[in-house]
Amino acid sequence: MDLDKIYVLQTGVSLKISTIALQELIANAISKQKFPELEKIRSTSDLYAYLSVVVCEGAEDLISRRQRWIDQKIKTDLIAGHPVSFRSFCNLFWRNLDEDDPDGDEWQKMIASDQFYFQLTILLNKLRIAERSLQNSKGVLPEFSLSSA
Known about the structure:
By secondary structure, this protein is of the alpha+beta class.
């Protein structure tokens, strides 16, 4: 699964894992010339706090399958196509129950895949490059993009 790209699950639910919060964090660091929050991000798991999931299609069906574990705020955000924190979205899927839930099983496999970890590692490296560039420059950051392309 690539970050910031739409992925369609076997059930027809389409979603993407967004890095927009991380992009905003970097933009803020550049404009304010302060980057203490960037310095706190040291591992791929630290990135989870800055990732969100946007369900583009099939939110109602996903909600009906995950009804027992979903709260009203997440339900409202999913239906509206608003971002849900990565951790909150992950909490919708309980691994020992997901063998019968194709969404959960597929989600768990995606976030446990080498490809997902590789994407996070690339993102972390780009973040470190941005941090070093900020430390070494006077507010001028060379062309910088978090996209995986």
